[in-house]
What we know:
The structure holds two protein chains of two kinds. In chain A, 82% of the residues lie in helices and 0% in strands.
Amino acid sequence: MSAIAASTVDVGFLLTAAAAAVAVAIEMLEALAIVLAVGVTRGFRDALAGALAAVVVVVLLCLALGPALLGEADLDFLRVIVGSLLLLFGLEWMRKGILRMAGRRRRSSAYDEFIEERDALGGGQAGGGGPDWAARLVAFKGVLLEGLEVGLIVLALGGTPGHLAPALLGTAVALALVAAIGLMLHEPLRRLPETQLKLGVGVALTSFGTFFTAEGLAVDWPLGDVALLYLAALVAITAWLAVRRLVPAALVAGAR
Amino acid sequence: MSGLLGSLRRLIFGETWTIPLGIGAALAAAELMRTALSESVWTSVGGFGLAVMVIAALACSLRRPG
């Protein structure tokens, strides 16, 4: 009996860490693409200054919001709030992923974002030797928006008892991974199957969101945390069916 | 500034209102089911009802991709 309990705890821990790691890695890759583009075209000092300022703002916001979210709130109410937040992110990532896989939307690529951002910034250069505030602002805005999404996802995933440690562990692994990719510059960005990864994160976040929201509404999932696995399977099958259903219609529309 | 606020809105609510409205409708329907069903039935099958409504919200958002 205790072995079963231990295995269900491990499933929750591993799934939370994996979901946090992949979600954070993808968002940080997008932020990295923007910082690299600003750095290459306008100078890495200004790119890093804008990015660092955004990181400070995100950390301060998380430190302000985190205790309120993780603190004294009623546990069931907290689960519904956290679950709804995860559903908002998860369903949006799934919607975009399904449309991309079906060919109804351009595929996601941090490398393409890097090229577009680089080309957009290439036109103007900073005058003199002073700070390039336009470049700093672009890096700041890009990192702030991606960082806020990371912060909200990590707070939501870690917002229920027992899930904070795996969420932070997954985040740390993702940050190390993205830093390593950043050191190797842009070649690895080209090889990542980003669309599939984002759809996978959407499936994971939607499963967690459904799980936590139902628990907040006094549902007892059969098999405890293992329910995350069969919920993920159900959501993944739905995504696969949706892509299959949308692909022929897209091809027909393209042939006209 | 308005560009940043628009980006923040899209960050939290997404590109379409179908998903936040769908989640709200799913929560309202789940609460109605909870009051209509006996406690033991809700506790054991309520989660699956919510999962079906979440999938329905996704399906609606795909029908109106804009």
